[in-house]
């Protein structure tokens, strides 16, 4: 018998030695497939398909607007055309507040959102607190951020409140209360802005009112000291008296001249001359009251007119300050903002979350991509080792 016939085929010994390695590689791939793909997918099917508690979603749409709309400039219009216009600051403020801790505190006080999110009928991975969350306010705030969202459409300026809960009524209550909080915030912003805008104008009105009061007090003080209500009227009365006395004086002098021509020796001439002297003395006295010393009516009239002028100027200043205040208030009202509800929070009639099929497919696709990456890396490492 030939010895060559008993020899094994070329490479048979090498294949026999490498068969255990092939088996190990096959088992590793199967284990990797089960661990990375099958197990997560089965877990997703069990949780999302059978266990996950359905959640109802209530949505509301609103827009933050002002009473006075301003026209867009050329640059703003260009940015808006490309969809990159700067978002209105007021809308950002409202959105930030809705997602803030202050809003969570107020919601907890108003509708007890902690009890809503902690519904015992919900599964462990959905209700608050989940095993990775703390039963604290910070944990509630993190859970709220997962359940309530504000989606802003910058191209249309419309914001959407998205609220989730395990009961349809609870989801609607959360969305409605969120809008109420937003309206309260806008009202506070309007009140503060109006107060800031009118503060200086109101202070000017107060100063003008005080000047009027001071001017009136000075005028009253002068009247009490001079024992005159209106010196100008008193001077008019004195002038009337002087006019009357002068007319009487002229008549008496005319009578004297007439008697001297007709009856020079009559005793009436002496009487009339005495009357003329008395009238002249009275006229001088009345003129002395009008002018001539510090107690004359001319000095009092001058002081009175100065005081009345100060009062009139104070009145005009008060009227101007009041008009300016009304103008500032009107302008502040035109610059106010308000929330216009486009769509009221709806009462959902069926749960929208979780989207079971989509989530299961997402887990499957993620698992497949992870498996492919791991397999490629392992093959590359094996080739590098050989």
UniProtKB/TrEMBL annotation:
InterPro entries: Bact_polysacc_biosynth/exp (IPR050445)
Signal sequence segment: none
Coiled coil: 198-289
Molecular-function annotations in GO: protein tyrosine kinase activity
Keyword Membrane tagged: yes
GO cellular component, one term: plasma membrane
Keyword Methyltransferase attached: no
Transmembrane regions: 31-51, 359-381
Keywords: Coiled coil, Membrane, Transmembrane, Transmembrane helix
Domain of life: Bacteria
Stated name of the protein: Capsule biosynthesis protein
């Amino acid at each position: 018998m030939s010895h060559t016939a008993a020899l094994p085929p070329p490479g048979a010994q090498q294949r026999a030695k490498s068969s255990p390695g092939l088996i190990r590689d096959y088992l590793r791939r199967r284990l990797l497939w089960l661990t990375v793909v099958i197990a997560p997918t089965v877990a997703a099917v069990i949780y999302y398909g059978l266990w996950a508690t359905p959640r109802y979603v209530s949505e509301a749409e609103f827009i933050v607007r002002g009473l006075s709309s301003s026209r867009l400039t050329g640059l703003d219009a260009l940015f808006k055309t490309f969809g990159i216009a700067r978002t209105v600051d007021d809308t950002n403020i409202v959105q930030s507040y809705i997602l803030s801790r202050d809003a969570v505190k107020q919601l907890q006080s108003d509708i007890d959102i902690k009890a809503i999110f902690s519904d015992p009928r919900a599964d462990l991975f959905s209700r608050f607190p989940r095993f990775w969350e703390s039963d604290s306010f910070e944990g509630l705030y993190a859970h709220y951020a997962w359940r309530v969202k504000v989606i802003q459409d910058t191209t249309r300026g419309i914001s959407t409140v998205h609220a989730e809960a395990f009961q349809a009524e609870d989801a609607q209550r959360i969305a409605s209360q969120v809008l109420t909080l937003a309206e309260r915030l806008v009202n506070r912003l309007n009140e503060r802005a109006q107060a800031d805008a009118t503060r200086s104008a109101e202070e000017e009105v107060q100063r003008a009112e005080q000047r009027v009061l001071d001017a009136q007090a000075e005028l009253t003080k002068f009247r009490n000291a001079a024992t005159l209500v209106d010196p100008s009227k008193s001077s008019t009365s004195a002038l009337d008296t002087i006019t009357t006395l002068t007319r009487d004086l002229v008549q008496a002098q005319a009578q004297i001249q007439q008697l001297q021509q007709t009856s020079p020796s009559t005793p009436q001439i002496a009487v009339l001359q005495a009357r003329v002297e008395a009238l002249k003395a009275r006229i001088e006295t009345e003129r002395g009251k009008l002018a001539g010393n510090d107690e004359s009516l001319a000095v009092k009239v001058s002081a009175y007119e100065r005081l009345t002028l100060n009062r009139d100027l104070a009145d005009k200043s008060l009227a101007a300050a009041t008009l300016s205040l009304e103008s500032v208030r009107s302008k502040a009202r035109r610059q106010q903002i308000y929330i216009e509800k486009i769509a009221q929070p709806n009462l959902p009639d069926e749960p929208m979350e979780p989207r079971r099929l989509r989530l299961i497919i997402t887990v499957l696709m993620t698992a497949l991509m992870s498996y492919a990456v791991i397999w490629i890396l392992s093959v590359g490492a094996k080739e590098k080792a050989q």
